[in-house]
Structures are given as C-alpha cells and as structure tokens.
Amino acid sequence: SSGINAEYGEEMNQAKALLRRIHTRQLYTLIKETPPSNRTFPDKETLLNEVLGDEEDLKPYLTVEKIKLNFGKWSKNGDPMEPVIFYDKHGTISTAQMYNQCSMFVPLSWSQQHLQFFCKSEDSTILERVRLKVSEWIEKTEFPVSTYPKDSP
User: Fold this and answer.
1) Global pTM?
2) How confident is the model at residue 64 (pLDDT cuts 50, 70, 90)?
3) Which of 11, 44, 70, 74 could be bridged to 80 by S-S, CB 3.0 to 4.6 A?
C-alpha cells in the first residue's frame, strides 16, 4: 500500500490542489479569445508550440480550449437552408435567388470555432508573459469567416 502512495503521491497532491482551487473559485485566468472563424486549428500540442514559439518554459502554464459552434448539418455543406426549395410568386423554383434574399437572416457560416487561452499560474510575471505571447500570435493570425452561398453575386 505504501508503494501505491509513493507512486501516486505527487499526482494525488496535484489533484488535491486543483480541487482546492476549484472549490475556492481560484480558477485559471482567461488570457484571450480568438474571434469566431472557419479556420481549422491544429491539435492542442501543436497550437501551444505555435503560440509560445521559443518560450517553452511557459508551456506548463498555458492551456487552450477549442469552442465549436455548429448550427446544424443537414446537407453536405452543413447548411440547413441548402435543401429548402423556394418558389417565386409565379410558382417557379428560384432557389438561388430566394436563398440570397433570405441569407441576410442566417449566419455567414453554419459552423465556426474559436479558441480560449487560459493561464494556470497566478504569478503576475508569468501571466504577463503568457498574455503577450498569446496576443502576438492572435495579431499575426488570420481568422477567416467564409460566406455562403459561394455563388452569391
């Protein structure tokens, strides 16, 4: 039994410390969020390397969460309006024209994601260094939002 305690002792202490922080509401600090976009982000490890660059000593203090928002996926393009058939007042099918007219009421994209960056440290120096690296990365990164339909005038 003492072998198990020795083996998991450090992990248990980290888990206890984390639970204590949650219980006392000392949560991680939200550093920054990216704007919503259609950009495909790499896995978290690659993303952290990209954001931090040569300042790998900050890696234990930075965590990132991907937030995905999907309005529905009813067609091959993920647009629930695509299969809808529109008729004009003469009974003629006019899908593209009507879609473009109603598109001002629908989102530009049916699926977007953005990132939230959190700092695990409460040290003000580390917080500021992490904030600077994340801000620099966001400034130099594009976050496109594609418009649909692609055949709009």
Assistant:
1) 0.64
2) very high
3) 74
